[in-house]
Amino acid sequence: MKRCCPRAEDFTVGWICALPVELTAATAMLDEEYDDHDDTQYTLGRIGRHNTVVMCLPAGQTGTSSAAAAAAEMRCKFPALQIGLMVGIGGGVPNPEVDIRLGDVVISQPQGGYGGVVQYDFGKTSSGGLHTRTGFLNAPPSVLLTAVSKLRSNLSAGRSNIPVHLSSLAHLPEFNRRNAGPDTLFHSLYNHVGGSTCDGCRKDMVVIRSPRRSEETVIHYGTIASGNQVIKDGPTRDKLSADLGGVLCFEMEAAGLMNSFPCLVIRGICDYADSHKNKKWQPFAAAAAAACGKEILSFVPAASPLRSPDVAAAERIASNDSEINRSDGPNNAERGKLVTTHNQVMSATPNAAPLCARSIPTMDQRQSFLDSLRFNQTRNGNRHLLEQLPLVSEAIFNFYGKQHERTCLPGTRVNVLQEIIKYYDEGRLGASFFFARGGGDAGHGGKFFTSIAVQLADKSPSLRHYICDAIAEHSNIASLSLRDQWRHLVLRPLLKLRGDFPCTSLLLVVDALDECEGDYSVQEILRLLTEARSLQTVRLRILLTSRPEIPIRHGFHQIPDSEHQDFVLHDISPALVEQDIWIFLEHNFKIIRQERGLASDWPGEKALRRLLENASGLFIWAATACRFIHEGGRFAERRLSRILKDDRSKDNTSITAPERQLNEIYIAVLANFVGHDYDDEEKEIIVLSQAA
Question: Which residues does 454 contact at the CB level (< 8 Å), separation at least 6?
């Protein structure tokens, strides 16, 4: 659910785009999008600890003038904006010194006498046709250049959350790098032969470049050329770049911003500013630039929003009160003037009434008022600090959105689940995280410890206080390493707890760790969790489930046997497994029987026993078979017969019985139902029944 929108004075970062595809990428970078704001011209949300305004230029109105007008309007609407980002796509300038390729990112940085951006089409023409560029565009604010330095340092050390940010667009195929097509650079003098693609262009005119070792986005830093015309010619591109001392890319908006809107320009390379340019690379280039923008903001300290007029008025009233009531206070005449001023301010600012008394307060009243302010400041400050931590709600136990999913059946092995529910009901379930491959933020470890910390903060005021202290001390904690997040947000706050904590132990549930992307993240999470053994006041008990994949096994091998206890499901008695599958089959066939109005004894114990035997202890086989039969609708009986059909002629002694049975159920489903509800024979039966 979207949160209500903060005040306009609370927004400190402005993010400007020129194209809708850039707006889509920018919106995906928001950790939270705000609701209930009147002006649909802007997208309002939060990136890390920054309240951010995102806007796109009006359709068809690109160029430096449009960008300047949009920035001016944005600053009037949001007066507390302190820094800006101009994020989008641009045309790269290939040269032997800088290996720029499609999908790379260019960030403006002062270099060679320019502030990071140069307007190539602005200046004067003197006698003889000599064109001289005039004026100078400002460099980005120092706070953003410092953030760029931190970005470069982290990239050099192999630390980057840019792939994590890019995953926010993984559900949109057009933003996938592999759907962008080939990266082909032609010699600058060779022009495009026509058409929307380069299929007809001569292959012998392609520049041969060494392949890169990975597809990771490469970031370049230097001068960006900006102007009001699109550069679509190789020789013109190269000449302009040479005249400017070497630029990295061309774009059309930044020059209108630099002297009026302090910003950093970030451009994803979507073409080479030549006649071969097309739009296939635009989505991924926009996504790469947006991900870099978000990463840079993670290194920018939180800015202080402007005070509201009511708060300022309350401060004036408090100042008057102090003058009126001081022990060596004013004489009667001065006091009368101050009281008059006090009353005038109170009358002019009725909304300041909750912040101070309407009459001149006594010393006791003033102290009580200050105490209440201090309490509200702490409570609201903590809430504000916790909101800076990313929380993956869908990864939490008992998440609202999953309440209608299937639950464990009575009679199956639900002991562990019952223990978790017991801890939950008693308030001892400290936190949980259910990984899900392909589930967005629930599919990686980037927000694992921040989500754990937010949940732990609800366990007690003291724990909440210690966690908020860590956020205040490390304002960029959400972008730090997993180790720093664990130690600052979880381990150290728990170590600081004293005897007044309501529980002696807390349970941390980590489900399906094998579905967390990245072997390093998996092993790092395992290693860090073992540090919980140092806790004294409260014991952190960790329940972790996973398939026994190699990174998981390797991680556990690094942990002494005395510090963990394994429970291998494969070691469970086959009889217990078969009992669970039997209960599952009975339950699902009862549903099918009731929905289709079949006989009360269908399919019979014999058929269920054969299904149980074919499952060979594999729950996935039983689940696939039940779904296959259930989706058959009126053909449920027919599909059951197909599964039970004696198919021993296909026996293959080279594989185990469970593998053979699993192969056969998959083949039966795939052969008949890829892209269809019914197979041809079932459709023929339906047609005949309708004709009759």
Answer: 386, 389, 391
